[in-house]
Amino acid sequence: xxxxxxxxxxxxxxxxxxxxxxxxxxxxxxxxxxxxxxxxxxxxxxxxxxxxxxxxxxxxxxxxxxxxxxxxxxxxxxxxxxxxxxxxxxxxxxxxxxxxxxxxxxxxxxxxxxxxxxxxxxxxxxxxxxxxxxxxxxxxxxxxxxxxxxxxxxxxxxxxxxxxxxxxxxxxxxxxxxxxxxxxxxxxxxxxxxxxxxxxxxxxxxxxx
Length: 209
Prior knowledge:
- This protein is α+β, with helices and mostly antiparallel strands.
- Helices cover about 25% and strands about 25% of the residues.
- Strand 8 and strand 9 form a beta hairpin.
- The radius of gyration is 17 Å and the shape is globular.
């Protein structure tokens, strides 16, 4: 997303008149999620200044700053003291979607529940295989992980503070039959390039989908 992100963190990029992260917050609040923890690293103080305590959105926002980027797993592990002992929802800050978060399971039969989508053009090989609401590392057809998931804190039991991905943790849990999932076919975009940001602008303006 450079040069856009040279001076502003990606979640604060504006599209359709508001930042990407504001879409998430408003959507989450509408769906009943009002306690929100935000991980941030690169220019993260801008996020705190822009969003504040979240009260104007009807939410309570807490922040988990990272002195250096800890990746997906390390960022969640660093935030665990703010997340409690029950399963919690994780949404990547660089996606846009209209997934109905209220439909997510309130309890888990395993360690994680992932939302999978049809493979986008930039990721045709997919990530995982879904069979009868259970997710496996191998198998066909393959779907792409959306960046939306519900995790149990126990998924991170053997982890240590530092930079690491959630992918090895999820693969290990899949091998143990501990990852459920669902296939979502609604609106979803990975805002990973200026071109996709422009495409989302067009979608929100009703020009295309």
